[in-house]
Amino acid sequence: MFRLRTLTAVAIAAAAVLPASSPAAATSASVLLQGGALAFVGGTPAATLTFPTITLNGADRTLTASLPFDVSDGTGSGAGWNVTATSTQFTSGTHKLPASATTIQSAPNLVCDLLPIFCTLASTLVAYPYTLPAAATAPAPTTIFDAVASSGLGAQTFTTTWTLAVPADALASATPYSSTWTFSLGSGP
């Protein structure tokens, strides 16, 4: 019996020495995320696109050249974006190629700039093939690629493969045929 009382007394003494548990402490954390810019980056699109030189042979010919566009959407809006284009007709002196000569035959290749993935790849509504508008004076621009709402966030590059159709009756020239292309980046698809 003496032993039971001693153990009980020791347990009561130990309980008195232990600190009482304190209530949980709450911390509030916050952050303000401000929208950044929507912009072409990395020197894109390039200032010059050169198709390969060909020798006319009396048959229709097709030339291709790639042109990357690096788009950074740091706005945080999720509104999407669009790239529009227009051009003047390819000419060399009085010679010219058809206004419909320049196309993109299939959807551009699209990758995030940083890997592993640090972007939301753009989902486009543009139907391909796409024909670049052209005339003596550049006509109204049309959309070559876009990012629908909630896509295209972060930095990504889409690479277009342009096709230039040279008809069998094209005229040779001592100077290159040239065209001026204008690209614009805007908010919303």
Structural class: mainly beta
Low-confidence stretches are 1-15
Over the alpha carbons, how many angstroms does the gyration radius reach?
A: 32 Å
What does the average pLDDT come to? Answer: 90
Question: So how many helices?
Answer: 1
Task: Report the β-strand fraction as a percent range.
Answer: 25-35%
- Backbone shape: elongated
User: What is the number of E strands?
Assistant: 12
**End-to-end separation:** 87 Å
SSE run:
HEEEEEEEEEEEE
Taking the sheet with the most strands, its summary is: 6 strands, antiparallel
Helix content: under 10%
Secondary structure elements and their pairing?
Elements: H1 2-17, E1 38-40, E2 61-73, E3 81-88, E4 91-92, E5 95-96, E6 102-104, E7 109-112, E8 130-131, E9 134-135, E10 142-147, E11 154-166, E12 181-187
Parallel strand pairs: 3-9
Antiparallel strand pairs: 1-2, 2-11, 3-10, 3-12, 4-5, 6-8, 6-11, 7-11
What does this structure look like?
With 189 residues, the chain is mainly beta. It has a domain at 35-42 and 63-168 and 181-189. Helices cover 8% and strands 34% of the residues. The chain contains 1 helix and 12 strands; from the N terminus they run αββββββββββββ. Strands 1, 2, 6, 7, 8 and 11 form a 6-stranded antiparallel sheet that branches. The longest helix has 16 residues, at 2-17. The model is unreliable at 1-15 (pLDDT under 50).
Provide a compact summary of the structure.
The chain is mostly beta strands and 189 residues long. The chain is built from 1 helix and 12 strands.
Question: What features would you highlight for this structure?
Answer:
mainly beta; single chain; 189 residues; elongated
